[in-house]
Amino acid sequence: MIALEHVSKSFGNQVVLDDVSLSFPMGQTTAIIGPSGTGKSVLLKHIVGLLRPDSGRVMVLGTDMATAKEDALFSVRRRLGMLFQDGALFGSMSVGENIAFPLEHHRGDLTAAERAERVDEVLEQVELPGFANREVSELSGGQRKRVGLARAIVTRPEVVLFDEPNSGLDPLTSDSIDALIGQMKEALGITFIVISHDIVGTLNVADCVGMLYGGKLIAYGPTQEILKNPHPVLRRFLQRNVALPDTPNSNPHLPQALKEHS
Amino acid sequence: MEFLAQVGHYGLFTGRVAKRIVLGRFPFQALLRHLYTLIVRCMLPVVAVVFPFGMVIALQGLSIFSWFGAERLLASLASVAIIRELSPVLASVLVAAQGGSATAAELGAMRIKEELDATEVMGVDSISEHVAPRVLAMTLACPVLNLFGTVSGILGAFVTAVFIKDENAGVFIAQLWAFTSTGDLLASAVKTTVFGMIIGTTAAYLGFHAAGGAAGVGRAVNNTVVVSVLFFITANYFLTSALFGHIG
Amino acid sequence: MNALFTLGRFGWFCADFLRATTRRPPPIARSIEEAWRIGVRSLPILFIIACFVGTNLALQGYMAFEPLGGQHLVGMFVGLAGIRELAPIIAASMVAAKAGTEMASQVAVMRIQEEVDALEVMGVNPHWYLVTPRLLGILLVLTALTLISMVAMVGSAAAVAVYQLGLNGQHFTEMVASTMTMAEIGYGVLKSLLFGTIICLVSCYCGYYSKPGPEGVGSATNSAVVCAAVTCVMLNYLVSEMVYG
After folding, report:
1. What is the mean pLDDT of residues C167-190?
2. Between chains, do A50 and B121 touch, taking CB under 8 Å as contact?
3. Mutate which of C106, C206, C217, C219 to test chain B, going by most B C-beta atoms within 10 A?
4. Interval C44-55: pLDDT, tens
5. Per-residue confidence (pLDDT) for residue A244, from 0 to 100
6. CB contact under 8 A, A91 and B115
7. Which residue of A has its CA nearest to B112?
8. Strand pairing category for A55-60 and A2-11
9. 3-class secondary structure, A17
10. Residue A238 and residue A236: Cα distance in Å, rounded?
11. Are B143 and B92 a contacting pair, CB within 8 Å?
12. Phi, psi of A229 (to 5 degrees)
């Protein structure tokens, strides 16, 4: 169970999160959307405990990340995986070493061969077979994200978080990352939390959508309902981004034609 | 006020790093790797700076001593000046400029590219993993590089005195032996260990807390050189007074 | 090969800069602004460091001469070592550490953000635009900084000599004064100007050819200060050899 309860956070006198409460259903994909600079990344960093709220509670898998001691924090994080905006791969290591990094630290019980096997397995899953010996500097933006994703899922976490999975990518690569997220949800049954300002991709993969605006959660619910939600800011944001039809398809995902529009 | 807060913050950070080093909670292989890289990277600049400085010492020393016809005392001046002051200070300035700024740049880039956050999110302590081995490597590399600096500085003085100014090589070497004491060499090593610690923690602190994109990394690197040199030159005065403290 | 390439490119960089500078009057206002900024940023640290170098000069001079019974030479030692050699090189290396690194990282950031390309597209020679005001600024300000560090060094050395080492203050001052001729001071200042030119060109060069990304800025800044310092110290020996050799 992951839930934020009345979380507020300000930097200096700038309020970034203002009394935000929401819970993320397990086993589903939840997307948080909103224009840039509305505290989406800050929200994500609260869930993994990189930031602590000024007030409120952040319950992640039974631990309050707002007050957890360092050891407790680390043991929760072992059950999480996170894909950073630009992958955040270690430049000093090869692709394989990057992916093996969390295994080396947390799975001392695995032999080197077993670790290598796990690395190959996740590289296969992100559709980059045979990349283990590549250098990070040789990778394109999309490949970096996939390796970052491989590193996030190699420990078989219960929850995976995505920070702008589509930013900085061309539409085709972006779609392939979305497809990957969709596939993995089916195959692994992991809880996904995605923050994004790319509506098309998000609506394609998300079961639930929340919209942050000015530090407040202005709308939250299943994707279909969100598409019908009359909140003016949400309407404007959606229309600007996807040329939304007035009556969304009964399919929770957007029609294929829309995707090709963007 | 803000300055005091910074100093306090730096103190806390240093404490966290020190705790991990003392408890041995850092990857030992990374320490060796950083130590090796530091020594290789800084070797050339240290030698390239201390050697000509040794030559200048000999040049200027001779011009002073020649007024009194005491040129044969040159080696004593050169040995004392280079071992006690010049090599420790110059080698450390170069270690700060080359190694310290590289450390700040590495950690700063890791901060900006969210690699440090990624380490934390993977449940690994970023200070143990990335900071502690770098700080310890700096602390250990500084005295080693100082030794190379000392040797090349004295060599520089020797070259100028013997090959350019035609002083007697035998006298130079004899004077050198007579005036070089183990105590001075030890004091020099102690000094540079402290300097290395100062450079390492300053660089790590500034790099670890870099913010604001590529320009932020540049700022961290600038400040590392300036702040660490400032700190260790100040420390140098007190260390010199304490270590060679039969005076004053 | 690599070193030759770098050297050649540096030569071309300097040549193109010279050509551009002679064709177009320097931007006076920006130069003065640079000078002010370099001066204000470097002064406090330079002052503190010069003071501590002065104190140690007195301590070590005393320790070197005392066994030979030459305590009275400490003043002369401080004057000669401080004014001839240390003040110019310390002023230069602090300016390299503070202003040089800043130049390198500014230019590198401009390069990465394609501002340098933008200059070129707008028909402004980037060497002229970036280097000229910084060079004039550094030359303007380094004279003052060198003189200040001479004073700080001798002053702090005198304080240590008199209060910590118990030497005769008047005698010390006379010995220092005997070495402080106009020629010595002028020589020190000239040397620092030479260093300033090198620092500026090397720093701008390193920034100008920076590699992309935050690491690029970091390593450009890093190599700027190291290359500048090494070149200055080597030149320092050559100049000293020519003048005193």
Report:
1. 86
2. yes
3. C217
4. 889 998 999 899
5. 47
6. yes
7. A88
8. antiparallel
9. strand
10. 5
11. no
12. -60, 130
What is the reported pLDDT for C1? 64
In 3D space, the residue among B171, B150, B147, B169 whose CA is nearest the CA of residue B160 turns out to be B169
Find residue A216's DSSP bridge partners: A213
8 A C-beta contact, residue A43 and residue A163: no
pLDDT, one tens digit per residue, over A167-182 is 777 777 778 788 888 8
pLDDT above 80 for C233:
yes
Q: Which of B45, B94, B105 sits opposite C218 (nearest CB)?
A: B105
If one counts every other C-beta atom within 10 angstroms of the C-beta of residue B141, the result is 26
pLDDT in tens, C177-187: 887 888 888 88
The rounded distance, in Å, linking the Cα atoms of A154 and C157 is 63
| Better-predicted residue by pLDDT, C192 or C122 | C192
Q: Compute CA B40 distance to the chain's CA centroid, rounded to the nearest angstrom.
A: 14
Sign of the C-alpha dihedral computed for residues A244, A250, A253 and A259 taken in this order: negative
Mean pLDDT of all residues belonging to chain A = 83
β-bridge partners, A193: A30, A161
d(CA A145, CA A139): 9
Optimal mutation site among A46, A86, A105, A122, interface B, most CBs of chain B within 10 A: A105
State the sign of the Cα–Cα–Cα–Cα dihedral A162, A164, A169, A171. positive
pLDDT attached to residue B115: 93
B99 or B2, higher pLDDT? B99
Chain A hits for B118, Cβ within 8 Å: 82, 84, 88, 148, 151
The CA–CA distances, whole Å, from B229 to B10, B97, C48 equal 16, 9, 11
The alpha carbon dihedral of B238, C98, B216, B35 has a sign of: negative
Burial of C42 (0-12, 13-18, 19+ CB in 10 A): buried
Q: How many CB atoms lie within 10 A of CB A246?
A: 6
Q: Is the pLDDT of residue A251 over 70?
A: no
Helices C87-95, C126-159: inter-axial angle, 10-degree rounding: 130
CA–CA gap between residue C241 and residue B103 (Å, rounded): 36
For range B57-68, the mean pLDDT: 82
Of C228, C188, C241, residue with least CA distance to B57: C241
B117 with A50: Cβ contact below 8 A: yes
Predicted confidence at residue B245, as pLDDT, reads 65
CB A77 within 8 A of CB A2: no
Q: What is the pLDDT of residue A246?
A: 46
Q: Dump pLDDT digits (tens) for B147-165.
A: 999 999 999 999 999 998 8
A88 to B124: CB separation less than 8 angstroms, yes or no: no
